[in-house]
Amino acid sequence: MKGGLYGLKGKEIGLISIVLMSATIIIWSWEKTPGLTLFLPSQTRVQQSSDILMRRPVVNLLAPEPHVGEVGSSFSKKEATAQKGSEESSSRRSTGDSNTETTSYKEQILSSAQGDQTSKQKDHKKDLVAPIQTPLTSSSLNGNDNKLRNKDTENKACNYAKGKWVLDDNRPLYSGFGCKQWLSGMWACRLTQRTDFAYEKLRWQPKDCKMDEFEKSKFLQRMQNKTLAFVGDSLGRQQFQSLMCMITGGEETPDVEDVGKEFGLILVEGAARPSGWAYRFPSTNTTILYYWSSILCDVEPIDANNRDTDYAMHLDRPPAFLREFIHKFDVLVLNTGHHWNRGKIKANRWVMHVGGVPLTDRKLAVIWAAKNLTINSVVSWVNSQLPKYPGLKAFFRSISPRHFMGGEWNTGGSCNNTTPMSVGKEILDDESADPVVGNAVKGTGVKLLDITGLSQLRDEGHMSRFSITAKPGVQDCLHWCLPGIPDTWNEVLFAQI
Ligand SMILES: *[C@@H]1O[C@H](CO)[C@@H](O)[C@H](O)[C@H]1NC(C)=O
Ligand SMILES: *[C@@H]1O[C@H](CO)[C@@H](O)[C@H](O)[C@H]1NC(C)=O
Ligand SMILES: *[C@@H]1O[C@H](CO)[C@@H](O)[C@H](O)[C@H]1NC(C)=O
Ligand SMILES: *[C@@H]1O[C@H](CO)[C@@H](O)[C@H](O)[C@H]1NC(C)=O
User: Fold this and answer.
1) Beta strands at 311-314 and 350-354: parallel, antiparallel or unpaired
2) Between these two residues, 139 and 204, which has the higher pLDDT value?
3) How far is the CA of 271 from the centre of ligand 4 (A)?
4) Does the beta carbon of 44 lie inside 6 Å of ligand 2?
5) Ligand 4 center to residue 395 CA distance, Å?
């Protein structure tokens, strides 16, 4: 949307003024909303972070999204130019542009190599004696009354993140040759040169609890007169496409209505595609939508009249789309992660803002700290809205792991494995493998859709070298083949709505 705005001609400046005026009103009323918490920087954040990151095995969580994925997720000229920059600045990264990121990244790899076996054994023992309920740590509640008030008292008897992958001949839930209506060709591995499809035949089996089998009719029945919204980056878009395929079984469904207009999701002049999509199943009046917000914070041009303007990236302000439409949502699934790198931020000409002014605190401007602040801010804001919308079930999806081996996405990294469960088949950890999101939702009414651990076991499920758009030698070990792992994310989601 911002990209389209940016491309408008002189005669439409009147329109721009109206948009800006409404935006001001929205922002103004939003600022009036009680319960908005501005998280102040903690002096000890750097140490805390490395402690948390070292605690458990995490594969490739902090590095940038690869170029190949960007081909499919560029939404405007603005974003398209950003891609070029992303390549440049990613190499800049490796020459020391952001020391902190590089350090934590190395630490993660190290801990992943060493800690795996012992942490699993330890957690397994814990499992036998301790209830699954995770105690609220005082640190996660400090300075946040809001979270205390909405303390999650739900019975957490079932942690769907714990479990194992099992072979299941009834998978996949739709054919990768079908679902052309909803599934982007670039993610349909059946349409590429790939010849191994064992990865399609696995099902996630949670430990100690039954997960309802996904059934189209059951899903639609449960979602009658309801709206489910995915808001996030290209991995969120994969989950959206996966769900559309699951609900339709991959069959042509001409009766599904395009209701993008109701959510302002229209193609703006100059943009490659709209900022999202919304579809309604008329039989049950069920709406499924996706909105592109790669960093889950508000982005506005600093000078709307200047073509070369920078953009304010308001770390402590949720995306305008969310503020405008949250009242229409019954289920909300947020995600962010792979766009948090110096290269993308620079290339997009985003300038970090907190409290409406440019961020000068260098500690906070470090990427992982800015990401943490944003995730905590958006969670806190959604949490503050829950009393107003008692029917709303809000989820934050934990980060989707990357599996680049032997290099980064732009330095020959690959994910060639084709054998399912060669990385592992079981997750027994009580805590999420994504501590940033895991800690942010603790003690709030926002639920964790924890898919990090289970997806980490599936290094064979990525696009790998078969991506249609990939240049030779560039592998996509970030996005997933569909049908594939994001289907499981939706099964786990379905079990909780
Ligand atoms: C992330 O932000 C929250 C809220 O401000 C804070 O409590 C937490 O310590 C931060 N996490 C890290 C790793 O610094
Ligand atoms: C569809 O559901 C919405 C609530 O989500 C409701 O306002 C509307 O009246 C419903 N429409 C029909 C035709 O049932
Ligand atoms: C859905 O909305 C329609 C029209 O408003 C209403 O008749 C129907 O009872 C609603 N169904 C559910 C399950 O809420
Ligand atoms: C993965 O396959 C590519 C292309 O066949 C090859 O260049 C690369 O070296 C392989 N990587 C590993 C780790 O074997």
Assistant:
1) parallel
2) 204
3) 36
4) no
5) 37
Ligand 1 atom with the shortest distance to the CA of 435: 13
Q: How many domains does the chain contain in total?
A: 1
Measured in Å, residue 184 CA sits from the centre of ligand 1 at 36
3-state class (DSSP) for residue 31: helix
C-alpha neighbours within 13 Å on the C-beta side of residue 398: 28
Residue range of the domain that includes 265: 2-494
Residue 373 has pLDDT above 50, yes or no: yes
Per the CB < 8 A criterion, the answer to whether 448 and 140 are in contact is: no
Mean pLDDT of 152-174: 82
Query: The whole model's pTM is what?
Result: 0.74
Q: Is the CB of 225 under 6 A from ligand 2?
A: yes
Separation of alpha carbons 294 and 287, rounded Å: 22
How many helices (DSSP H) and strands (DSSP E) are in the chain? Answer: 17, 16
- Tell whether the model's pLDDT for residue 145 goes beyond 80: no
The answer, yes or no, to whether residue 51 has pLDDT greater than 70, is no
What is the per-residue pLDDT across 69-103, written as a single tens digit (0 to 9) for each? 333 333 333 333 333 333 223 332 232 223 222 22
Residue type, 451: I
3-class SS of residue 341: coil
Per-residue pLDDT tens over the stretch 415-462: 999 999 988 899 999 999 999 999 999 999 999 999 999 999 999 999
Site of tokens 């002189």: 10
Q: What is the pLDDT of residues 349-370, one digit of tens each?
A: 999 999 999 999 998 889 999 9
CA 66 to CA 64: how far, in whole Å?
6
Tokens of 258: 């395009």
CA-closest residue to ligand 4 atom 7:
473
Q: Which residues neighbour 387 within 8 Å (Cβ) at sequence distance 6 or greater?
A: 150
| Residue bearing the CA closest to ligand 1, atom 10 | 372
DSSP 347-393: HTTEEEEETTEE---HHHHSHHHHHHHHHHHHHHHHHHHTTT-TT-E
Ligand 1: which of 36, 37, 38, 39 to mutate, judged by most atoms within 8 Å of the beta carbon? Answer: 39
User: Does 285 sit in the ligand 2 pocket, CB within 6 Å?
Assistant: yes
Shortest-distance Cα residue to atom 4 of ligand 2: 225
